[in-house]
Amino acid sequence: TTTRNKREEQMSAEVETMMYTQTVPWHGLGTYVGDTPLLSEEAIVKAGLDWEVEKTDLMALRYDETLDKDVECLTSEYFANVRTSDNKVLGVVQNRYSLIQNSEAFAFMDQIAGPGKLLRYHTAGSLFGGKRVWMLAEVTGLVIEPVKNDITQPYVLLVNGHDGRMPLKAMFTSVRVVCQNTLNMALKSAKDGITIRHTGSLKDKLAASRDILGITTREIEAHNELAKNLAQKKMGDAVFKQFLENLVPIAEDKPNTRRENVRDKLTELFQSGAGTEIPGVRGTAWGALQAVTEYNTHWRGTRGAKTDVEKQTSRLQSTWMGTGNTMNREALALLAAV
């Protein structure tokens, strides 16, 4: 309990509330709720997301020369997104903005997996004082195992914004059990997952997006086959060096110490990173992919981050939706072509 309290005291200001099971993907932040993943009804409460947002009239102050004082005036084009539980303003939006409540986001996630509720929530929470929320749910009964005893668990990730800046995003992602490496899984029907803007008929948009993401089993099985193919591809030193040159290019006439360091770290992880001791991993394209994902999940530089929590937060956001995700995708494309 003392250790857990210390962790929570160290939580980044970016994390407002959070629940987690086991250790993925933030390794002990937030409220621990046991080792068994939760259904949505319990997860929304444990994560502190059982609140709603409403659009309210926005008042502005304008100086009136006649009265020689500031007077309030009601805006007609802009509204404030206010959390009803504490009247906190989360953002300013235009009148065409449509709300997606946390309960609706959880319901959308549940419907992706069908009536059997094949999703179990591992983490969920609120960032930046409620402006952003996320939920990460395990797809039960399905695993990716290209090499015996090297298991990767598939998940569905959803991130939604209440600040007027971020749309709802949903995508498949995966976590390698042995080292918690994270890799987003590309969909043939929607390469970067689903993006739903907060405008127009959200009901229709959610229904269409659910149909696209609702091919869970087929997509994960295809990803499993791709992983098995990578595990069958042997990579000698020369081939791996060429892979690095393509992934982390350096102009011959412009030395770049930072990129050289990245290449060196990737080489180290390819040779002796987490999971390389599993027979069939080291020296393969699958092992090369895991070197890249381990780098982005655990070693990527985090400019401006000072504490371990801030560094972990930065790396995870990069891996989910930033430059880490881009690098992982590029590596996968290069290795598939080897």
Describe this structure in words.
- This protein has 338 residues and is α+β, with helices and mostly antiparallel strands.
- 37% of the residues lie in helices and 27% in strands.
- It has 10 helices and 12 strands.
- The strands form 2 sheets. Strands 1, 2, 6, 7, 8, 9, 10, 11 and 12 form a 9-stranded mixed sheet that branches. A 3-stranded antiparallel sheet has the order 3-4-5, with no helix packed on it.
- β9 (150-161) and β10 (168-176) form a beta hairpin.
- α3 packs parallel to α4, α8 (285-299) runs antiparallel to α10 (323-336) and α9 packs across α10.
- The longest helix is centred in the middle third of the chain and has 17 residues, at 216-232.
- The chain is globular.
- Residues 1-13 and 24-28 have low confidence and may be disordered.
Main traits of this protein?
338 residues, alpha+beta, 9-stranded mixed sheet, 3-stranded antiparallel sheet, 10 helices, 12 strands, 37% helix, 27% strand, globular, disordered N terminus
Strand and helix layout:
Blueprint: H1 2-9, E1 15-20, E2 31-32, H2 40-46, E3 53-64, E4 69-83, E5 88-94, H3 102-112, E6 119-127, E7 132-139, E8 144-147, E9 150-161, E10 168-176, E11 181-185, E12 194-196, H4 202-213, H5 216-232, H6 237-247, H7 257-272, H8 285-299, H9 308-321, H10 323-336
Helix pairs in contact: 3-4, 7-8, 8-9, 8-10, 9-10
Indicate the mean pLDDT.
85
Low-confidence stretches: 1-13, 24-28
Rg from C-alpha positions? 22 Å
Rounded to the nearest angstrom, the distance between the terminal CA atoms is 49 Å
Residues in helix, %: 25-40%
Number of strands: 12
Can you summarize the main beta sheet? 9 strands, mixed
Anisotropy-based shape: globular
H/I helix tally: 10
Structural class: alpha+beta
Which strand-content bin applies to the residues? 25-35%
Order of helices and strands: HEEHEEEHEEEEEEEHHHHHHH
Assembly state: single chain
